[in-house]
Amino acid sequence: MNIGKDKLSVSGENLNISWSFDMKEITFMYNNNKKDPQENISVIATCKDFAKGYKIGDGKNHIAGGTAMHSFYPNGKVEATISFNGLKEPVIDSGLGLFIRACSTGILPFNIGEDWLLSVVTNNPAQENQDEYLFHLMHYTTPQKYGGQDITQGAIIRKDKPAIYFYNNTAEYLDMTSGISKHYEIPSSVKITCHGMTSDGKKASLNFLAKPEIFANEIDVLGQLNKLIKSFVQALVTKPYIFQFHQNNAKLTLQVEGEDEVVLAGDGFLELTMMK
């Protein structure tokens, strides 16, 4: 990937990500560059009108002689046009999205964290008879040689209500199983517990049992490398794989100080990244 002059936009063989001049909109352009129309896939998506964003810690966090930064842009409005399999008419759709800008200098990703989790839950207000919301939580554990520390940050953005930012959180992997991957054990569920504050200063907590119900993808991060180089890296450095799942009928239990407890229904996306 090549970094643009603005130090934000990036471009590669298949993917381009660029920001608008006023930094309020992101455009994603993907094409798998297959010449056969039946195999070609192209996606153009924009994400804008974000809720107020935030960063982990002080922004740039120092670890293992380098720096890492994660900036969250939650609850963006997404519009996408997708063309695939030689369809005469593209698929056009819209929804909510979360953008995470991850930057690092002087350190490789596997030295930042060895286990990563991203959980996202949102709803369809028309179906659920509830106001629109988007919940997300990112969790990772630093390598044992750098302390094995858990880093977790999350938020829930609700329509016409104060945003809630969670900073004291846990993500507990339950009932590990080796049935999905030959490389890593995958949890049958993840118990997520969050504590934080609303944007107007009220205490808040949230509980959620994330379940990898519907398997979507297993991504071999080193899959494009030469087999000999890949084997060397996996044996001596790291073996990175990404696992993605969907969850129907997710239930979030939310308690805000001075308000009744509410249960928010929705659909979930769970991504697990293993880099041991």
UniProtKB/TrEMBL annotation:
One GO cellular component term noted in the UniProt record for this chain:
cytoplasm
- All residue ranges annotated as the Svf1-like C-terminal domain in the record: 130-274
Name under which the protein is recorded: Survival factor 1
